[in-house]
Design a protein that fits this description.
Layout lengths: L2 H10 L2 H12 L3 H5 L7 E2 L7 E2 L1 H12 L2 E14 L2 E12 L4 E6 L1
Antiparallel strand pairs: 1-2, 3-4, 4-5
Amino acid sequence: MDDSLAQSNKNFISQEWVREYFATVDKLNVDNLSANFVEDGQFRFGNAQPAVGKEAIRDALVEFFSAINAMHHENVGLSLGDNGAVFEAEVTYTRQDGTTVTLRAR
């Protein structure tokens, strides 16, 4: 990666950006969330195969969000680097039947 791109990514990915991104995730708004991805972006949930491309990412999000009523990420760790970030959270999912499950995610 050239230095200008690394610097651009470093400036783009901030603690505030990560907080705002996961606040968007927790709203379950597919259109607002998928707007964060570039046309050839990749998204992987858990151990599923990655969705590649903005349309595939949107479709994967629609499918996943239809299986839950709500989701909440509680930040337990954030590490920023020159080429990205690692966000660790306790994620509480509210299922369609109203029960909840909380998992640690990174």
